[in-house]
Amino acid sequence: MDGYLVPELAKKNMQYDMIEQHTDLPKFPYSRSKLLYIFLNKYSPLEGISELFSLVTSLVQMGLDTHDLVDVGTEHAEMKKMRTRQLRVLAGDYFSSRFYHLLSQAGQVEAVHSLSQAIAEVNRLKINLYMKMKKFKLTADEYFQQRIDIKSQLFLVFSKYMDGKSQKQWSELLLSITKCELITEELDRMTQNKNLKDSWGYWYLINHVTHEEQEVLKTESSNESLIQSFLLKYNIKLKLHQMLEKQWQEISDSFHSINNKSLQHELEKLGQPFRNYITASKV
Q: Which InterPro entries does the protein's record reference (predicted)?
């Protein structure tokens, strides 16, 4: 037990019978949240409230991610799907509202303001990304970089509370860890065959397949089975595993520049889920 209780605390703040019964939720941002907790504890004057700040940031992220699951494409959906859609909207709003409540109770007005600004920036970045996707003006690398910017924005708010060297270390590690999270998310999408148009693999295909195949992909962009067949043909899963291994190796190498053995150990533990994905690809 390492004293990191944020996932359990977040679960208590997100528990709601109707939500649990009628909809699924996005994955908890464990790695980003734990990394924030570690750095606030070691390199900022916020040690006493590092748990609170990690918790509220995770709840806001869960709220935003839950809203991203809302299917706005079907106007006349069956009752069950309609209920799921409505509950995802309400759940996202509910999770986000918890951060206002918890921070105001703790008298952390500045943090409310900072996170509110970050939420606005996240929404601006999302709109820019969706517009580029709609016009097919996007490369796979641009897609990934914009997704990293979106996923890291809330957590970067706390950079200002850290000292010089650790601030740079924190932001670099956060972006690298976020990329690892996104790669594993992409691998999960392929396994589940869901939301493939909103994936790195899809945008890789758009930029690398033949012209005829590209037109088919653009025309049939909602056909998950068709996209999956192209992903298999072009070995996208293998490419993602190679990206993850390379990215994690770079992060591991960067640990050697950290003069704190305790921090090194905690960061190595943080990477275990990514190492599990890497190991699984070699079995």
A: HEPPP_synth_su1
* Inter-residue contact 254 to 173 (CB < 8 Å): yes
User: Are 230 and 213 a contacting pair, CB within 8 Å?
Assistant: yes
Task: Give the list of residues 6+ apart from residue 21 with CB closer than 8 angstroms, or none.
Answer: none
Which residues, 6 or more positions from 240, have their beta carbon under 8 angstroms from its beta carbon?
183, 186, 187, 190, 200, 201
Query: Any idea which residue has 């006349």 for tokens?
Result: 76
For residues 31 and 46, the answer to whether their CB atoms sit within 8 Å is: no
Report pLDDT for 254. Answer: 83
Reply yes or no on whether the pLDDT at 150 is more than 60. yes
Rounded Cα distance between 69 and 221, Å, is 17
- Whole-prediction pTM: 0.89
Query: In sequence order, what are the residues at sequence separation of 6 or more whose Cβ sits closer than 8 angstroms to the Cβ of residue 3?
Result: none
